[in-house]
Design brief:
The protein has 227 residues and is of the alpha/beta class. The protein has two domains: 2-119, 3-Layer(aba) Sandwich (Rossmann fold), CATH 3.40.50; 126-220, Winged helix-like DNA-binding domain superfamily/Winged helix DNA-binding domain (Arc Repressor Mutant, subunit A, Orthogonal Bundle). The chain is built from eight helices and eleven strands. Strands 2-1-3-4-5 form a five-stranded parallel beta sheet, with helices on both faces. The protein is elongated. The two termini are 29 Å apart.
């Protein structure tokens, strides 16, 4: 999952980025509202975290502009203000949730995970597809109750496909959503990770979880029964 973090406090920005990356998120950062608006409009994000008190363009205005341009990914606002009117203003602008500083990074991760799941119609952190199961809270993966060990990039790719079960995703879309803006979008690394996932998840090719659609991309097949 690819996130946009708009926060002008350098120490907090660094701390949050570290925690988010440890949770297998790819994170782009911006230190002011104008840069946040540019990135939020230019790149495909799965969610955004926006501080209210930003320079150049405040967080509330940033969110209003993104929503006016029909960007509908989940947004969490961060605020040092404790007046309920400020929180209401943020939610009315189009934010989906808020956290008041100071807060624990674990709470931010839990709220973020929940928002992303709900945005694709998943209420539980446990997502199942036949014998394949992932837990987006613990980052664990299993097939027929057998634990599967994945690298960070392999997990990101599988999680994105699981959250968009049955949908065809091109290599470009997959790369854009699991890597930050500095990654080489022309790379064939997605093909490598797809091969690794197939070998780890389905070494005997019993289930055929991941389908290749020539010229279109990849799809995680819905498993409705035993293969």
């Amino acid at each position: 999952m690819r996130l946009l973090l708009v926060e002008d406090d350098v120490d907090l920005q660094t701390n949050l980025k570290t925690h988010l990356m440890s949770a297998k998120y790819s994170v782009d950062v911006a230190a002011d509202g104008e840069e946040g608006l540019f990135q939020g409009s230019e790149y495909p994000y799965d969610a955004a975290i926006v501080d209210v008190g930003l320079p150049l363009l405040d967080g509330i205005s940033l969110i209003r502009k993104l929503r006016a341009e029909n960007f509908d990914y989940p947004i969490i606002i961060l605020t040092a203000r404790d007046r309920w009117q400020d929180k209401v203003e943020g939610l009315d602008a189009g934010a989906d949730d808020y956290l008041t500083k100071p807060f624990q990074p674990e709470e931010l991760l839990a709220r973020l995970n929940a928002l992303i799941r709900r945005s694709v119609g998943q209420s539980s952190p446990v997502i199942e597809n036949g014998p394949l199961m992932i837990n987006t809270a613990t980052l664990s993966v299993s097939v027929a109750d057998r634990h599967i060990s994945l690298s960070g990039s392999e997990y990101k790719l599988l999680e994105y496909l699981m959250l968009h079960l049955g949908e065809v995703k091109s290599k470009t879309v997959l790369t854009e959503h699991i890597y930050d803006q500095d990654f080489d979008l022309d790379s064939n690394v997605i093909e490598v990770f797809i091969r690794r996932l197939r070998k780890k998840l389905d070494p005997e090719s019993r289930y055929g979880f991941i389908e290749t659609l020539r010229g279109q991309g990849y799809r995680l097949k819905k498993i409705t029964g035993e293969a």
